[in-house]
Amino acid sequence: MESTLTPARIVQELDKYIIGQAEAKKSVAIALRNRWRRLNAPEDIRREIIPNNIMMIGPTGVGKTEIARRLAQLAQAPFVKVEASKFTEVGYVGRDVESMVRDLVEQAVNLVRAEQKDRVRDIALENVNEQILDILIPPLRKRNRERGPVAFHAEESGVDPSSISEDELNERTREKFREKLLRGELDERKIEIELTVPAHNVQVVGPMGMDGMDGLQDMLSGMMPKKKKKRKLTIAEAREFLIEEEAERLIDQDAVTKEAIDRAGNSGIIFIDEIDKVAVSSGARGGPDVSRQGVQRDLLPIVEGSAVNTKHGLIKTDHILFIAAGAFHVAKPSDLIPELQGRFPIRVELNS
């Protein structure tokens, strides 16, 4: 996050995409700025500064989700939107509330991986051009070889094959083709390349559904051998596939995971929509939605701050910014359990 993103500047950026809702924009802008201040605070007091979670109240279509999404884009922070009504208390059929934290970490990993690939793209492009050149004009493995493909390509590149040694001929031909390759003159020529085909995902379904089984599923998928597949493509098409593979090889996966967990824990934003659907109206007892109050109790430790185990490692939720939203047509914010209400100290009503 840039130091120039003051609350006033953040509001200006949000104004480009969302009309009105000044109060909501101001609240999220202050929350984002406080986050920057925390990250720049001395180490000994940093962990004492917790984010002020926000509850947005307003009907569908007034910009609740868009404000949160644009805020995350502005801060280049991992962002996940979930619907509270999809979660259920442990023991009922439905998603476990911890899955939203796992989704956030997954989003952070993808974000960091994409950034790292952008950083190494120039090196990857250089390596890929050499790979393509090796396919077009293979380098000499032995000094004494029959004059065949090299001589043919040499004549094509304007070099007289009879006047120089085979090693020098090969090198000059490669240099001529390298120049053509960099200028894009060979982009339409077709070559055959070998691509890695990822193994099929092994579906593992536990007693509570897919949640919590990600680690086992990934481990089993990783044991499956990766297949190689040959494809005939133009050089322009092949270059994009090969750059993706080369960039994947160049980046440090452990560093990606470490940075992703740190970014998710310190900069992540979780948007919990339809929070009003799990609020139990005063006087209502039992019924088909008996698990709704249980969802609130399960949400509470996540919002308060706890450690969640993911396939990438342990993440603490203490400094994740939670933004809850709901229409509250039937239920009221006061119908949420008091402990959960206290974890969303900032309430903003959006105008329709």
Describe the overall structure:
This protein is an alpha/beta fold. It is built from 13 helices and nine strands. A five-stranded parallel β-sheet has the order 2-5-8-1-9, with helices on both faces. A two-stranded antiparallel sheet has the order 3-4. Strand 6 and strand 7 form a beta hairpin. Helix 5 crosses helix 11. The longest helix has 21 residues.
Strand content: 5-15%
Please tell me what the overall shape is: elongated
Q: Biggest sheet: strands side by side, in what order?
A: 2-5-8-1-9
The CATH class assignment of the largest domain is Alpha Beta
Provide the gyration radius in Å. 28 Å
**Count of the separate structural domains:** 2
What helical percentage do the residues reach? Answer: 40-55%
Query: Which H/E pattern describes the elements?
Result: HHHEHEHHHHEHEHHEHEEEHE
CATH architecture verdict of the largest domain: 3-Layer(aba) Sandwich
User: In total, how many beta strands?
Assistant: 9
